[in-house]
Design a protein that fits this description.
Distance between the termini of chain A: 44 Å
Largest sheet of chain B: 5 strands, parallel
Oligomer: heterodimer
CATH architecture of the largest domain in chain B: 3-Layer(bba) Sandwich
Number of helices of chain B: 10
Distance between the termini of chain B: 34 Å
Structural class of chain A: mainly alpha
Shape of chain A: globular
Order of helices and strands of chain A: HHHH
Number of strands of chain B: 25
Radius of gyration of chain A: 17 Å
CATH topology of the largest domain in chain B: FAD/NAD(P)-binding domain
Number of strands of chain A: 0
Shape of chain B: globular
Number of helices of chain A: 4
Radius of gyration of chain B: 22 Å
Strand order of the largest sheet of chain B: 8-5-3-12-23
């Protein structure tokens, strides 16, 4: 699927535009994962639920603020493709937030 | 008429390219995780088959370092082994021209549209910082403005086009931004100055004249976008009620695709934008804010304005127009456009010459979207020719236009030579006001453009 390759390239070029932030978030996530994994007995499964809650909350917040941040508004949502794309953009941010929360929650909720 | 040179190194050999294989693996691995995002973006540009590097000692000259020239150079550098590739262009700053309408309507700061060409030219490609002053296709050579002669086996003409302000008496490019004079086309600075003029106009309102010449245009949607956006800016400023926005087209339409033409005219009717057809801007008195239009019968009429958006006639640069490479008869001869076959984009009389982008004398396609779609095709066809085969790829004339309707919404229009609307993905409605189309224009197309320039998509 060429569309996938093109999409990846768009994401890559966007990442280059925001490189310091992307590197910082990636480094933070790796550090959190590393710390959580090294401590042992991390409650990875128990951490899924709070991560999902964070995903939903951040996705919802981003969903509502993204049109304004892109100089548009809900009044410009023309059809389901617009709503679907807005949800995907929001879910992307929600996913990043959930990924950061997951190791934190795992450290706080020990297994077994 | 020139003949096709023999493949420079005899029968070219094909060697597997490890990097291409790796790239294919990477595409597969990463791709699995982003299918929904990919589907949602609605971007598609043909196929990207994994290739093998073609061993050759061919000398390839690329005239021009705009999007088409850079994309071709990057692809050829990757897909040829041993070729000598030379780009001829003095330009140091690479301007993202699709962003000019965003600058000219106050959406983007001007800084967002300029990058360094040096960052986009691939390693191993010679960059001659001069301009082509003469094409000599009979001798397979170009001559630069310093007198340097560069011989080639294959030539890609990607010079772009020439804005012809001389056809508008009294037009002064330096005056753009003052006295209500706007023009989005010449440069980022002109686009920025156009916004200054539009911003001043919208505060007070008054009469705006929006124009369209009779020649082929790069980004033929820009005059329409500017019209929609000036109406939008007047509404935002609360001055629409005391303003008139009129559109003057030198043609009997405002867009070459009938369905889009009808759609835009219907929308302008609702917005209160009258259109005068066959009304050509021929002169302007910038200080007096007065424009002169002529009808096909030669009848002249003078109109006063508070803001005018001048869209200049366009043609091929003299270096192409006055060369053996230009059309000598037919509809493209007057503009001096490059005589290429509209499907293979190979020159019709010089088989070792190809064209990319605005310079091509083809029915449609002076947009970045056309370059995005056609450059891989041109490179593929050039590789065929180098390998001693006939060009296999055929271009359908694809182009697209994210047509700004207002701040926050656009139409994503895609069409081909036959004026068919061809959305990249079936879920896209080209006639639907869309936030997604707006975000494409506002956020996603420049990253896509940069990937095209780097020859990756």
């Amino acid at each position: 699927m060429y569309e996938i390759w093109l999409t990846l390239n768009i994401l890559f070029e966007l990442a280059l535009q925001y490189l310091p932030a992307v590197v910082a978030i990636a480094a933070l996530w790796l550090a959190l994962m590393g710390v959580a994994a090294s401590r042992g007995n991390a409650g990875w499964c128990k951490a899924v639920k709070p991560a999902l809650v964070v995903f939903v909350v951040v996705t919802a917040i981003t969903f509502f603020i993204t049109p304004g941040m892109t100089r548009s508004s809900f009044a410009n949502m023309g059809y389901w493709v617009d709503w679907g794309n807005l949800f995907l953009y929001a879910a992307g941010f929600g996913g990043v937030a959930a990924a950061l929360v997951w190791p934190l929650a795992a450290m706080m909720r020990r297994a077994g | 008429m020139s003949r096709t040179p023999e493949p420079p190194s005899g029968s070219p050999s094909i060697a597997p390219a490890a990097s291409s294989v790796d790239a294919g693996r990477r595409r597969l691995l990463f791709g699995a995780s982003v299918v929904p995002v990919a589907a949602a973006t609605g971007l598609t540009v043909g196929s990207a088959p994994a290739r093998a590097a073609l061993k050759t000692s061919a000398r390839i000259v690329i005239a021009g370092s705009g999007l088409g020239g850079l994309a071709a150079a990057n692809r050829l550098a990757r897909e040829l082994d041993g070729a000598k590739i030379t780009i001829v262009d003095r330009k140091e700053i690479h301007n993202y021209q699709p962003g000019y309408t965003l600058v000219a309507t106050g959406v983007w700061p001007v800084e967002k549209v300029s990058d360094r060409n040096a960052d986009l030219i691939p390693a191993g490609v010679e960059w001659v910082r001069e301009m082509v002053a003469e094409f000599d296709p009979e001798a397979n050579a170009v001559v630069t403005d310093s007198g340097r002669r560069i011989e080639y086996d294959y030539l890609i003409v990607a010079t772009g086009l020439q804005i012809d302000f001389a056809q508008i008496e009294g037009m002064d490019v330096a005056a753009i931004g003052s006295n209500g004079l706007g023009c989005v086309y010449p440069s980022p600075q002109a686009a920025q100055a156009t916004w200054q003029a539009m911003d001043a106009y919208r505060q007070k309102g008054g009469k705006a004249l929006m124009t369209l010449p009779a020649t082929p245009l790069k980004c033929a949607g820009a005059p329409l976008k500017m019209t929609f956006m000036v109406v939008n800016r007047l509404r935002q400023a609360g001055t629409r009620e005391r303003s008139q926005v009129e559109f003057h087209s030198a043609l009997d339409n405002i867009f070459s695709v009938p369905r889009i033409n009808q759609e835009v005219l219907a929308r302008w009717d609702k917005l209160g934008v009258p259109v005068t057809f066959n009304s050509k801007l021929v002169a302007i008195d910038v200080g007096a804010r007065r424009a002169t239009f002529t009808s096909p019968e030669g009848e002249r009429s003078e109109l006063d304005y508070d803001f005018i958006h001048v869209v200049p006639p366009m043609r091929a640069p003299d270096v192409v127009k006055n060369s053996p490479l230009s059309w000598k008869e037919g509809g493209f001869a007057a503009g001096g456009w490059l005589e290429v076959d509209k499907e293979t984009l190979r020159h019709r009389r010089f088989p070792n010459v190809f064209g990319i982008g605005d310079i091509n004398g083809t029915p449609k396609g002076k947009t970045a979207a056309t370059v995005k779609k056609s450059t891989p095709l041109v490179v593929s066809n050039l590789l065929d020719v180098i390998a001693g085969r006939e060009p296999a790829q055929k271009f359908d004339g694809y182009t697209s236009c994210p047509l700004l309707l207002r701040e926050g919404a656009a139409l994503l229009v895609e069409f081909d030579y036959e004026n068919r609307l061809i959305p990249s993905l079936p879920m896209i409605d080209p006639l639907q006001d869309s936030y997604f189309a707006w975000v494409m224009k506002y956020r996603l197309l420049k990253p896509a453009y940069m990937a095209v320039a780097k020859g990756r998509v």
